[in-house]
Amino acid sequence: xxGWRVVRVMVTRDGRLHGGAxxxxxxxPALGAVGYVARGPVLASPDPGARDVVLGALERVRRRxxxxxxVVQPPAxxxxxxxxxxxxxxxxxxxxxxxxxxxxVVVDLSGDEDRLLAAMKSKTRYNIGLAQRKGVTVRKGGPxxxxxxxxxxxxxxxxxxxAVPSQEYFGDLMRIMEPGGHAQLFxxxxxxxxxxxxxxxxxxxxxxxxxxxxxGDQGQRHPNELLHWTAMRWAKQQxxxxxxxxxxxxxxxxxGTRSVSSFKLGFGGDVVQSPGPYELVTNPMLRRAYDGLFRxxxxxxxxxxxxxxxxxx
Length: 313
Fold this sequence. Notes:
37% of the residues lie in helices and 29% in strands. With 313 residues, it is of the alpha+beta class. The strands form two sheets. Strands 1, 2, 3, 4, 5, 6 and 14 form a seven-stranded mixed beta sheet that branches. A seven-stranded mixed beta sheet has the order 8-9-10-11-12-7-13, sandwiched between helices.
């Protein structure tokens, strides 16, 4: 999807899986093959030997497929991998490939719903009740709701100035992942009219908030607070342990009370910080161009627009 293909690296011992990485690959104009490892590699233990094996396997795959630029984003639980990446020539990444957020808010769903509500900020808790009193309803969506979700997301992208993947992308995502319970769409409605929606992805013991969409209307009814609370209750009922809000600004305390980060922090939970993304540019000429003019272009508005367009098409 979105033009990426997948190569998986797995490390086994005595017939058991001990770790691995998922490498996303695509061909970018003027760059050739680029790769991205999101939230990986993942290891079952802190064994340095296993880290060396999985990173060595990843390097062999990179060489075999002639990947000229690769970004690795280790998960929060695998910070020791950063030292190994630096030893192998990786450095803190630039902005060519959008990295997974370094900071996120993770809510532990264990315990009863009263405990979850009590752990929220009083304003968030109040707004959930307000939405219910003001006639906001939330329902689960399916593939037939993708067009509505995409329309709401497009409106959000126009307001916040981010590129939106195609409707076909989300249709494929739901077609592949929804039947097995790995993706779920929720829509908030006022008088049967959709005003906002969230798409969540379930994996392991965690449900992650992947995309949020809002028309910009009915804000006084606070549909988005009820929307997330409904998704959290669903995740808990399905047996998941955590609800991950998928990213906050690392400078969130200065973001003001109405920032997106403050909204997410209102639901309680713990702030979890992962290592930053690390990159390896293997072609010497490409590295010189990237370190010079290209990085400046990426920091410009047109440069970011071009990268977002390539990534979402």
